[in-house]
Amino acid sequence: MKIIIHSNGNPFTLKGGYAEQIRYLFRMFHEEGHDVYFFNTGMLRDENQTKVYNFAEILKVLKVTPDKYLPNTCLDILKNIQYLCHSNIGSLSPHFIHVSKVNEFIDLVKADHFFTLCDVILFERDAVKLNCPSTAWWPCHYNPPDQKSLSILPYFNNIITLSTCIQNILSNYNLKSTTCPHVIKTINYQPSSNNRLIRERFEIPINSYVCLINAVNTEKSNRKSFDTAFLAFKKYLEINPNAFLYINSPTMKATDELVEFQYPVGHVKDTPLILNHPKYGEITVQTAGKDYVENNSYKTTITVNVPFNKPSINLIELLAQLEIPVERFKFNNVVISHQDLKDLYHTSDVLLACSKSEGFGLPILEAQVMGLPVITTKFLAMQNYTYYGISVEPCQLVLNPAQMGLWAMPDSEGIARAIDTINKWDYESKQDKFTNAKFIIENSMSYGAVKTKLMEIVHLPKPNKSLV
């Protein structure tokens, strides 16, 4: 059978919740013997025609560049997928999609099922129905749900929520749904070194109590509520002067760049050469083993940090406005490896994940599996998935004007109290909570468990390959 998977996520990137879940969906349906097609209206566009591309073609024609750190297992999954591209999506925003355009794709490939993983508020109702059976794996961000989402959800035969509280909310609107979480992969972690060396590498004071923030800074709505988390840390710092805040919020990534240079007159062999590069400013080139020859040009590869996202908030300026001492925080805006992120979880004492809303909250669950307690906002999915930590009551609901939805305003004083409470937990209590959390997450959110649940909900017959 032919399955169209749609998302506003990018399966070609290494990081990002949607990126991983899209690849899991590709794998699940491909393992079941189905033909899988994918489209993302914001990135897969062809100026000339509506067309189906294979993996090699989107690399060549559409200049799609997979993350260089994607493992071969992920690339193999991407190579098995067909990609739908459209010349005119028909929307002011690149991520919005008209139902009529979805139907064009459905008719183009004669799809048997349409499956979307995105906020359904991105759909525009310009057709009365979808042209094939459909499923929405829906991350809800508002309570009550926004009116536009409530008007779109009836288009789908299957509505899958990401937590039970959202399923209960939808029942109030006579919308039948089923709950199925995202996949949390099993984390087999071995520290790269001892804790002292890890902290030295991250420039964290050895004996400090580390509060970690691991969140993207790209949403103008400030959904991650950096200001509230910073205020909470400031309040806790008054109680515990040994507290330290580590902020991991990447908007830059390291990339290799080929540069050409000449040695200046008098350059000493085997010494680094500092150059003023027109694009990257001052750079250092290692010149070991090369003799100076007048007017000769040389090429070498350097690693530079380049932006891949524009930060929505100047976090350094915000920290300064709040007068948080510079010696009590460290800010990293460059993408780090999976191993480094695991080391960061390992060396931290608590994760501050007090967003205004989370559709699911992958970092929250990954941290708990790693043995790091979390502090979240007691709102929608976060309250369901805080097993090892504290979910703090919000101050009130607050409007997100961009989507006319109500989400939570985190309580900085409550967060500060929660940090203090977790710091005072005894070892046995922490171990009991961690063991329970790890058991629940690994049993209900493994790839196998989620695949079984999704396949039961979508309920597609397996193709009989023997007849082909």
Task: Draw up the topology in text.
Layout: E1 2-7, H1 17-31, E2 35-39, E3 51-53, H2 55-60, H3 72-79, E4 82-85, E5 97-98, H4 99-109, E6 113-117, E7 123-124, E8 134-138, H5 147-152, E9 158-161, H6 164-171, E10 178-179, H7 195-201, E11 209-214, H8 226-239, E12 243-262, E13 273-277, E14 281-285, E15 297-307, H9 315-321, E16 329-334, H10 338-347, E17 350-353, H11 362-369, E18 374-377, H12 381-384, E19 389-392, E20 396-400, E21 405-409, H13 412-423, H14 427-444, H15 447-458
Parallel strand pairs: 1-2, 1-6, 2-4, 5-7, 6-8, 8-9, 9-10, 11-12, 11-17, 12-16, 17-18, 18-19
Antiparallel strand pairs: 3-4, 12-15, 13-14, 20-21
What can you see in these coordinates?
With 468 residues, this protein is of the alpha/beta class. It folds into three domains: 2-183 and 447-467, Rossmann fold (3-Layer(aba) Sandwich), CATH 3.40.50.11930; 195-252 and 309-444, Glycogen Phosphorylase B (Rossmann fold, 3-Layer(aba) Sandwich); 255-304, no CATH class. 31% of the residues lie in helices and 24% in strands. The strands form five sheets. The chain has an eight-stranded mixed sheet, sandwiched between helices. Strands 11, 12, 15, 16, 17, 18 and 19 form a seven-stranded mixed sheet that branches. Strands 5-7 form a two-stranded parallel sheet. A hairpin with a 4-residue loop joins strand 20 (396-400) and strand 21. Helix 8 packs across helix 13 (412-423). It is globular and about 70 Å long.
